[in-house]
Amino acid sequence: MSAAQPADDFIVEHHPAATRSLRVAFVTETWPPEVNGVALTVARFVEGLQQRGHEVQLVRPRQKTEETTRREALRGEEAAPLHEVLMRGLPIPRYPNLRMGVPSKKALVALWSRRRPDLVHVATEGPLGWSALQAAAHLKLPVTSDFRTNFHAYSRYYGVGWLRKPVMAWLRKFHNRCAATLVPTEALRQELQAAGFRHLAVVSRGVDAQRFDPGQRSAALRLSWGAAADDLVVVCVGRLAAEKNLGLLLQAWAGIRRAQPRAKLVLVGDGPLRAEIAQRAPEAILAGQRRGEDLAAHYASADLFLFPSLTETFGNVTAEALASGLPIVAFQYAAAAQLIESGRDGVLVPCGDAAGFERAALELAADGPRRARLAAEARACALRHDWDSVVLRFEAQLMAAADAPAATPGWAPRWPRVAT
């Protein structure tokens, strides 16, 4: 135990390993009410750590709607186990409602020198996450990280495919400085390991099967979409952005609409492609961002979930759709590949087989009895993936990193040089 740690930590060391409490600095650049899979998953893990008795210091950018007075809520031992530290943030280009942190190494070194955590967990690889990695190295603190977003895969959707290699090099350099990098699927672990990433461990994602439930189906909501009881409603949930492969969704939808003119397409989410989608499919219902029970009702009030994305690290919406009792057509990739048994609780298509995706969507749209069979199994599948078991696996990884030998003195992560 380091002499820099407060003496009261010695009391914790006498507890059995199963009940030992950690002081975790949890660094993220996205947090609810921002609507994205990373923010919602991070919130679940933070909540789970609190429920398990760990003290969490949440370090994140100040959101646009929050007060401008900086708060560093370190209130002493009598405080609640979640202490928020709000840092400077900037809007993300093309996503003005989202914020990213700014380089803050000096502030984090000062913060963690005053109240030393047992472990730093970095959830996102942005400027704030990089600063946290540097600050932890300076203070010889163990670090774990999440690989949550396929930035390297996004590059081809924005006309900068040449950035794929340097972005991957930076991500590898970032994560290889950590005691462990947590990934949501075994397939992603193998992919990253082949690319030179080290210290990888699989910690999946859970689903709130109480919130996302077929019982949330709403006849009134369907009526607002213009859908009668027997009309097919196709839904897709996620950002309206190029990396979600929505062009394929619209192609499949066009075929469904020709066969079933009364069918409805509902897109839940927002993003830079909203105007283009409205122009290409003016009949589509663009529901915008939805949260909580409202989001659950949008899932459950549909009849078929189409998910054409090939850039997910996991894809929480897949698990949410399953829990809502929706038959799914998706590529054999990320959460879909991990959760769905094709033909039993959904339909999986080989990655990149656009024609196969369209064909599967048309066939399932036309077969009501088959959709009903898949829907029943989809719900059963989701019930096997609760958050409690996922948080336990996450906690075990943090415990192992906190107990490992100290990081090698002197190393400090740096941005990789990119030839111009």
Automatic annotation (TrEMBL):
Transmembrane segments: none
Name of one Pfam family that matches: Glyco_trans_1_4
Enzyme class name: transferase
EC number: 2.4.-.-
Stretches assigned to the Glycosyltransferase subfamily 4-like N-terminal domain: 35-211
Keyword annotations of the record: Glycosyltransferase, Transferase
Gene3D superfamilies: Glycogen Phosphorylase B (3.40.50.2000)
An example molecular function term from Gene Ontology annotations: glycosyltransferase activity
Protein name per UniProt: Glycosyltransferase family 1 protein
